[in-house]
Every structure is written in structure tokens, then in C-alpha cells.
Write a structure and sequence with these properties.
Number of strands: 0
Largest sheet: none
Number of helices: 6
Radius of gyration: 19 Å
Oligomer: single chain
Order of helices and strands: HHHHHH
Amino acid sequence: MPMCGSKRTPKFDGKASSLLEFLDQYKVLADDGGLQGQDRIKQLLCYLPSDERELWSGLTEAKTSDFDMFVAEVKVMYPGCKGDRCYTLSDLQVIARKYASMPMPSVKELSTYYRAFHKVMQPLLASNRIGTAER
């Protein structure tokens, strides 16, 4: 397992949208390292920023050997971490308002807006949380 703080460790920024990627990266490392139970949980805590480490280590499941239950308890604290639930209609409106006041003199600016809008719009459409009128 990479040392805590090294460049090879997975990073978590505290945002729900990056939690699953962080956990996936960690699981690959933990599997390769043969970590199980409490060792798997302790090593994960080492890779967290101090605020998250304090929060996660205080969870009930952090004191057990059941890594999957620990992860499930962590996910409860990060609504929207499961993909399509991480965006709302108001997120889409914020993007539209932000870019409405910006000049877009070239394709570069327009494509930046397009990518930001679609990143939020696609999961909302896929989950039927917005209709075609809100596009």
C-alpha cells in the first residue's frame, strides 16, 4: 500500500461527486495489498484529509471489521454520491445563469458552457427528474 500522503494514494476532496471514484481507487489498492476487515478501514482513514478522517473514524462501523457496512455508513453522509442523484434542477439553473452573463466570443467559451450544462443535464434527463422543456 502506498504511504499516506504519497502521490500514488487516492485523493478525496470531501465532495459527494468524487466519493465513489475515491472508494473505487482505494478498493483496487486494498485488494492488491490483501487488506481485510479492520486493517482495510484503518488504511482508508489514513488517506483522508483531517476533517474527513475525524468524521469517518467516529462512525459506528469504523470500529468493526465489516468494510462494506462502513462504506455504506459513509455514503449516507454524502447525499448524491451514487451518480444521478448528485444534481438537481437548481444546479442546472445556476449553470445557465452563470453562463448567461458571460460573453462567448468563440467556440471555446461556448463548448465550456455546453460541457458544464450537459454534465448536469444528462443524469437529470436519464432519471426523469427533468423533462425536455427544461433542456
